[in-house]
Amino acid sequence: MPDQSIPQARTPDAPPAEPVSGASGISRRALLGTAGATGLVLGTAGGAVGYASAPAGATPLTSVGSGRAMFHGKHQPGITEGLQARGHLVAFDLAAGAGRKEAAALLRRWSTTAERLMAGEAAPHGDTDVARDAGPSSLTLTFGFGYSFFGRTGLEKQRPGALDPLPDFSSDHLDRSRSDGDLWVQIGANDALVAFHALRTIQKDAGSAARVRWQMNGFNRSPGATAHPMTARNLMGQLDGTGNPKPTDTDFDQRIFVPASGEPAWMANGSYAVVRRIRMLLDDWEKLSLTAQEQVIGRRKANGAPLSGGDETTPMDLEKSDAHGDYVVPLNAHARITRPERNGGAAMLRRPFSYHDGIDADGTPDAGLLFICWQADPLRGFVPVQRKLDRGDALSKYIRHEASGLFAVPGGAARGEYVGQRLLEG
């Protein structure tokens, strides 16, 4: 699971500053004024607003609170940023009678809300104060369209071919009520209250135009929890994200984003998100010896190094054999099967959250991964890799795909635009 099918983005989180105290009574806006690099002139629904300096003696935000992602840009936020500590995924279906006009108004509301909340501001209407006194905390909100959205809005001719439903896979045990949806929103932040505040505000913004179809909650390691930045671990204890493509790769944009000249035109600089709720059968996994677990994955559990030797970043030697003539990395090892060179160069940017939704009556934990992967075309990214895994991945015995979705995520909104405007008003 830690290589191509279920790893994480490698961008490390900066460790937090020393804990601070004495901030009671300081408003969220005033605290933001002390955040240094984040205290810039910000655009809001009411125009450009400059944050005022904090009152004398105000305690500055820690680095966790002051972290800020930008709403406007070439791409939507929440794709290339580092992993966040908290996440919410939510899908909506348009209400009966709602169509293109209502969808456009909703995306306009959501975009205004996202811009304000990501800047650490209060919600445009009826803010609940849940995130009062907190900074942006690296909050991101990302919006996408499902296959059914285009039929509901009369935009079938604008539906991308890459959004065709995913094929069935042998590891699928899908709950259709927790799959797909007209609209999809990804929320991530490094503070749980900031993330929940965004989720609640987005839900309220939907009003009568859309209703929640499904919603899932996730988490990752908190920034600064390790002595130095490192690849995170999943709930199986494996380093998870070693094989991710990096923004510094020369072909990164080509693999992850739709080109500016791509079709349809409204998807220029966008990406496609495959979302899978993958339950880990932890009781079975934890019965395996350490050696057996490493044979399933093809990497050392302690440091993520391939079984063929070296450290986490050492290229895997797929031809190396032991004294008995057997491959050191087994033929059915997850890391071997998911190598891009074994899948026609297929690659995707995995940026997931772990989840734990309680313990079943028999004591079995309902836990695993909210797998999210990004690619320019899922038919060249996710699908060929998953088909290969279907044919003999040793890890398949210990996981179960329980929900699935595929969403077209348009490029970022320019200043003065809302997300999806080129589709809905084009």
Automatic annotation (TrEMBL):
Question: What is its subcellular localisation?
Answer: Cell envelope
Q: Which residues form the Dyp-type peroxidase C-terminal domain?
A: 231-413
Report if keyword Kinase is assigned.
no
Q: Give the catalytic activity.
A: heme b + 2 H(+) = protoporphyrin IX + Fe(2+)
Give the note describing cofactor binding and stoichiometry: Binds 1 heme b (iron(II)-protoporphyrin IX) group non-covalently per subunit.
Which coarse location class applies to the principal site listed for this UniProt protein? other
Q: Which segments carry the region annotation Disordered?
A: 1-23
Superkingdom assignment: Bacteria
The family assignment reads:
Belongs to the DyP-type peroxidase family.
* Record-linked NCBIfam families: Dyp_perox_fam, tat_substr_1
Task: State what protein this is by name.
Answer: Deferrochelatase
Which organism was this protein described from? Streptomyces canarius
